[in-house]
Amino acid sequence: MARFRSLLRFGLAVPVVLSLAASFGTAPASAAAVPRARSAAQAEDADVPTYVVNTRTDRRTLAEVRQAVTAAGGTIVVTYDRIGVIVAQATNPDFGARMRAVPGVRSAGATRATPLSAAGTNDEGPVRPLSRGEAARLEKAAGEGAEPLEAEQWDLPAIGADKAAKINPGSRNVTVAVIDTGVDDTHPDLAANFSPSQSASCVSGKADTTYGSWRPADVNYFHGTHVAGTIAAARNGVGIAGVAPGVRVSAITVSQPIPRQLIYAESVVCAFVFAADHGVQITNNSYYVDPWQYNCLDDPDQKAIVDAVNRAQLYAQRKGTLNVGGAGNSNDDLSTLPGAGGAAPGGSAPAKRTLAPRTCWDVPAQLPGVVMVSATSATNAKAYYSNYGLGEIDVAAPGGDQYQAADTPSGSGGILSTLPDNQYGYEQGTSMATPHVAGVAALLKSAHPQATPAQLQTMLKAQADNPGCPADPYDWNGDGVVDAVCAGDQRVNGFYGYGIVNAFRAVK
Questions:
Q1: Fewer beta carbons under 10 A from the terminal one: N or C of the chain?
Q2: Could you give the angle at which helices 430-447 and 223-232 cross, rounded to 10 degrees?
Q3: Rounded to two decimals, what is the model's pTM?
Q4: CA separation for the pair 153, 432 (Å, rounded)
């Protein structure tokens, strides 16, 4: 993601594709995905300024703050009592400041104060769909026991997932929730493993469980379906295979309707709480929370966003859910974050601010306890776009790199996975790396059902393969300019964290 804008910038699209964890492609208007069910909860006015108010969790404080919200001209959308987060809408420009002055309020701020258009995204080169002709040739040449398109999935043997499936494909008692743009659960590679009872739309900030609410609005919302396929596409003689083809996958939709396709804090708060309350063991988070690429604690609105989302994801951890997040696609060193910048609301010019580590956060990936994932290429090198940083990256996984050819029939360095309307296509980004890690975590949870999120994270790191920092300066395009500096050693470093995850070791 050069500018990881939201979830919608991570991969490719149905006939078009995107690249990266934060970039969306566009699909042909004629292709109609299974429509998402609509309800009143999805009809919230996205242009009304929305706020998160974070309070103490005792009953008295919550009641008093609710009264204060109303007194200040606000309307409560939903209250998450157990984590002390109130989502409210208000047109009063002083609403945030008034809430911060209320006793018991820890932080309060706007998740968006003005109508926003989708921030610009920087695709990492065009990604392409798998044509029918290519699919037919692959199916004809498929090896015995392999899925029809598996020859293009260089990422599976790269982490031993093909071998792992023969030992333990994962348990149906384990569910990975894809917090994303929605998942086409009718796709033949996903239908058998999809869990409707653990799926919902959280777009409004309040969970909507109307049947089908989790589906993508149309083919432009292909990102979540691609992520889901990498995690749990079934080994059923159709299409591709997922890293953990025996586990279940659910969808929690968090992206605003077209044309915005933004992911706001209140939607993510809802998603983490819903996942935790519905027995989800692992969440996949291939996005960052809009409208800021980095949320800085010296800004009251951004501080409130960090606080609200962190409360929700910590709640999920306490309930036994491991959260996995993509590091982003800006080739930023997250351990230093020097200088001014960071994507700004509405795609406007970056704000003139100084970014500082542990003061400015990549949300949710950098939050405490979230497994942060960097992306690698078919040659196991750091993908040119992937963020990195010693002490920030936990583990790495295949995310694709269009400049590094794979040893496959097409030679594509992208990640092949499912798309809406029974399609398949290639994408690249930390959005694609993250579901590989979520899949391996699901295999570990299958083998160790009593493991806590912290224990799963420890196991992910322990079974990883660390290539160590490259011997030569990192110059991905060969122009003589060093593009990133790898700090650390063979045990842990800024490019790979503790290493590239290994599905085969996870099940042995």
A1: C
A2: 40
A3: 0.91
A4: 12
Percentage of the chain surpassing pLDDT 70?
84
Query: How do the residues of the chain divide into helix, strand and coil, expressed in percent and rounded to 5?
Result: 25, 20, 55
Average pLDDT of the chain, as a whole number:
87
- For the beta carbon of residue 447, count every other beta carbon within 10 angstroms: 17
Residue 36 banded pLDDT, cuts 50, 70, 90: low
* Alpha-carbon distances, residue 328 vs 7, 220, 262, 362 (angstroms): 10, 21, 16, 8
Could you tell me which residues come within 8 angstroms of residue 197 by beta carbon, excluding any fewer than 6 positions away?
A: 278
What's the number of CA atoms in the CB half-sphere (13 Å) around residue 156? 29
More confident residue, 163 or 140: 163
Does the bond joining 364 to the residue before it have cis omega, within 30 degrees of 0? yes
Per-residue pLDDT, 260: 64
Are 199 and 252 within 8 A, CB to CB? Answer: yes
Looking at the DSSP assignment, which residues form a beta bridge with residue 178? 251, 284
Q: How many CA atoms lie within 13 A of 329 on its CB side?
A: 39
Rounded distance between C-alpha atoms, residue 175 and residue 198, angstroms: 8
245 upstream amide cis, omega within 30 of 0: no
C-alpha distances (whole Å) from 221 to each of 125, 131, 256, 419, 476 are 19, 19, 10, 9, 30
